Amino acid sequence: MPIYEYQCVKCRKLTSVLTTRVSEKVDAVCTHCGGKKMRRLMSRFAMPRSEESRMDSLADPSKLRDLDENDPRASRG
């Protein structure tokens, strides 16, 4: 199910709209001010990865190069 993001022309706040199909027509309404003039934004997307791929990524020491093991904030993504 795709999630589309829109920006209200009136208040400039973001609204996300969940659809059941890519082909579904969306009439987005601002959840903040009720505005109907919305601009669709380019959204980020995620690619599913296998468990093996995620574990390989964690095992790569070059990914941990800048991690300060004494700083708990460093482990946040």
Structure overview:
The chain has 77 residues and is an alpha+beta fold. Helix content is 12%, strand content 18%. It is built from 1 helix and 3 strands, in the order E-E-E-H. The protein has one helix at residues 51-59; strands at 3-8, 14-18, 38-40. The chain has a 3-stranded antiparallel sheet, with no helix packed on it. A hairpin with a 5-residue loop joins strand 1 (3-8) and strand 2. The radius of gyration is 19 Å and the shape is elongated. The two termini are 25 Å apart.
**Helix- and strand-based class?**
alpha+beta
Question: Helix segment count?
Answer: 1
Q: How would you sum up the global shape?
A: elongated
Strand order of the largest sheet: 2-1-3
State the total count of DSSP E strands. 3
The N- and C-terminal alpha carbons lie at a distance of 25 Å
Name the features.
single chain; 77 residues; alpha+beta; three-stranded antiparallel sheet; 18% strand
Outline of the structure:
The protein has 77 residues and is α+β, with helices and mostly antiparallel strands. Helix content is 12%, strand content 18%.
List the helices and strands and how they pair.
Elements: E1 3-8, E2 14-18, E3 38-40, H1 51-59
Antiparallel strand pairs: 1-2, 1-3
